[in-house]
Amino acid sequence: MKRVTIRFMAKSFCGLLLLVFFIPVAHADLIVNGGFETGDFTGWTQSGWLIDTTNPNSGVYDAATGCGGASCTTVGDPNSAYLYQDVATTIGTKYTLTFFYNSGQLAATASELLVLWGDPNAPGLSTVVDFVNVNTSGAYAEYTGTVTATSAMSELEFLGRQDLDFYSLDNVSLVGGTVTSVPEPASKLLLFMGLMISLISLLGTRASNRGRLALAICSRVILR
Questions:
Q1: Among 57-66, 163-172, 176-185, the least confident range
Q2: Structural domains of the chain, count
Q3: Does 165 reside within a domain?
Q4: To 10 degrees, the CA torsion angle through 43, 48, 51, 56?
Q5: Is the same domain home to 18 and 77?
């Protein structure tokens, strides 16, 4: 019974250390009101777009534009149909961008959704994707891609055109990749020593060879 208890405590100790040293840190969605479910453009800056209730991908609302002509997706044009949001980012970090788009009817004739990303203070943003005359057959399609932050503040912008119908956008999401928190070796050593001393005091000096071996293996895994 004593040996079983020791082995159980040793295994529990290893599990605790793994949880402490390798805790995944989840990141929240950086986009505010990505599904437009506030019923307005809270969090966004726009021109030429409207809140629609007839064709959402999910929920009640979506954003749509019926802007016609080449100027709709020309960056800097006063007649462009733009929709953008600035978010706080970490330089060098990769983010997963996801959104749903519906190019409407007769989209193969004259439609476009231009997606831009980058430093809002730079001379220009980079193109993430440019859907020109892409026909989604009146249904929503999903886009998922990766963007990298080059500044502490980044801008995500959509420019839309649909000469014969409406171009719809919904469920915009921007999430940072999961980061594993790994302490520096010195920090790991100090924490390990403290936990080891606590465990030994609980086990006493009669720990079995198997129990000691388990602790040794655990220490090699944690401190390597």
A1: 176-185
A2: 2
A3: yes
A4: -100
A5: no
